[in-house]
Amino acid sequence: MQFSEKSEGSLLLLEIGETRLEASNAPELRELLIGRIETGRDQIILDLQHVTFMDSSALGALIGGIKKMGPLGTLALAGATGPVLQLLKLTRMDKVFALYPSATAALTEMGG
Amino acid sequence: MTIRSTLGILLSVFGLMLLALLVTQGAATYQNYKDRSEQIVIDQARNDLLSAIVGLQNDRARIVLIDGSADSALASADILYPSVEAMRRASETLSEIGTDTLQELGAAISRQVALLSFQADEFAAVLASGDEDAIWTQSFVGIGQIDLMQQRLLEIRRGILLEVGIADTTLGGLQMLRNYIVSVNNSLQRNRVLALRELEAGQFSLPPATRQIDENSRTLQAADSVYLETVRLFDENLIELASALSDFLTQTYIPAETRLMRAVEAGQDGTPERLDWIATGDEAGGLIDGMLETVFDRSQTYLAQEQADALNTLRRLSILSVFALVMFGLSLFIIARHIVTPLEQVRKKMLDLVEGDLSPVALEKFLLQDLRGMVDALRVFRITGVRRERLTQERLSLHAQIAEAHHSLKADMNAASKVQLSQMPAPGLVGKIRFASFFAPSHVLAGDTFDYLELPDDRVGLFQVDVAGHGAAASLVSVAAHIGARRALRSLKPGDSLTTAVKTLNAHWNPEMTYFTLALAEFDTTANTGRLVQAGHPHPVLIRRDGTISRLGDGGLPIGVLPDAEFEEIAFHFEAGDRVLVFSDGIYENANTENEIYSEERFIQFLTENATCSTEVLLHNIREALDAWTDGGQLSDDVSLVIAERV
Fold first, then answer.
1. Assembly ipTM
2. Distance between CA atoms of B268 and A43, rounded to whole angstroms?
3. HEC string for B611-640
4. Do the Cβ atoms of B589 and A53 come within 8 Å?
5. Where in chain A are the domains?
6. A59 touches B at CB < 8 Å
7. What is the pLDDT of residues A2-23, one digit of tens each?
8. Domain A3-111: which topology?
């Protein structure tokens, strides 16, 4: 799975390079998130601006990540559009994840 | 071209060349030996011929004296016979050996022998008779014959020389010396005759006779210096021998002859000079005979030495040849035994290995290191081959196990799929609601499930579940979800809160299990109403009797994400002819061959266009649209859709 990561203070920005998050790469996404959380990162922003499609397996991976995160941790989703945003809305994921229109917005909000 | 044939050809060529060299060399050496042997015999013949010539020269002088009967001591009964014997020996020798030419020359000598023999007999007869006239006549004829014969024999001698040639300088020197002796003897004998005749007449009355004698003397001297120089040129060792005669002639004989002639010319008696001259002449004759013998001895000794040398060379060459042939044979044996045969064996074993014969490399320990290296390599190849064979067997066995496991798994999956399908309710009327459905798992087993059931007090319940993911794991979770959802519906009393039922279901969902989306509905056919809880499931579609379309619900969290999640209940009218479509996201999230998903918008658009169709036609069209989009290929997500129609 293609991704890049960048640290901004206590924030970890993970930019997903894939256009589709689905059953085939959901396990990798889960491992990535769990791995970072296990190393102690608890302020993670997932930049989904390149992702055009996400299925239930990938959503499951995100939910797996938030379940792993402690009560003080945050897993923010940024830049979701189109079907991805529709799925997040349909499943009311705003109740589970912090949603931001863009990574910049997320960094500003969370950093401040 | 194999190594065997290449080596075979090379060694054959080498062997043939060696053989040719040995044969050529051997033949040349043998020929040399034969030539030397022949030369010894020919030298004897030539010596005999020379003796005959010298004998004839001497006899000529004696015949002249018989004629004059001046000095009967010079004449004897055995005149000419020694020459006949010498010539006969030469003739026989030449006839027995040598070439056709030599045999012809032998035959020519033989004819001269007959002639001379006849002459000798005639002389013997007339001498015995004592008839002076007859003796004189016979002498006159005989001298002419002897001169001719001498000429003839010299020619034959030249003929032999032309035929056999002069082998080397030593023989050349000896030949020169012999010629010199013959020439000296000729001049000597002729002078003797001339001088004796003149003495018989009492004076040198005829100046030509004196001149002739002087001329003969000069010839002697000239021949002397010329021959000496030539002999010196050929062989230094002969010079002493030649000088002995030369010195005697120039220092003793010629001065004696000169003194005699001067005395006669001066009109003196000259008896002491004459006696002195005759004595030196006899001495010269003896010297010449001795020299001829010495030259013959020398040439025979020399030739015998040459013959022995040739024989030695032949012997050495023979031993060398045998040694070379033995070495060649030994080389052949070593090459065949230690190179060609091992290579053949290695090659055969290599081919056997290629053919798959993996029996141990049972080759002897070869002598040559390279070949031992090859055998070691073969052993490594074999071990690799054995290992590969074992791996292949293991792989095949593993493959068979996998195939069996796969087969068994597939059978299990198919059995499970049948169970899953049997769990799905049949289409048809439940209470006053008619249900139709479309179910297509992306794999054999689906994570989607649904059910509908009649509830007390004219109520009908419906739910649909979509477990995240698909396949066996999702399908097992879906069974659990199915049981939970069905229990929730069954325990639902009229007027009970749907959200409470869903919240209970969510709260009791094992957090270790995958989450799922759920649409749960209850229809009241008396009140013509319906209510619905949407938990992460796509918004159901309500198609009114008149064909107007609307979406139900505002979304909601899936089951199993947050244990204390809140849910909303949506109420709607549901009258005769109205239809509700409940579906999982697979209906619009399957991708085509360009990996493009069908999309929710396109699906809603499709439903809008087909809203007035009967349920059967609508279901048929949905199936066709999905098939057209996926081109009949593998589905990437489970598809399930239920249509509930109020009758």
1. 0.88
2. 172
3. CCCCHHHHHHHHHHHHHHHHCCCCCCCCEE
4. yes
5. 3-111
6. yes
7. 999 999 888 999 999 999 998 8
8. Transcription Regulator spoIIAA (3.30.750)
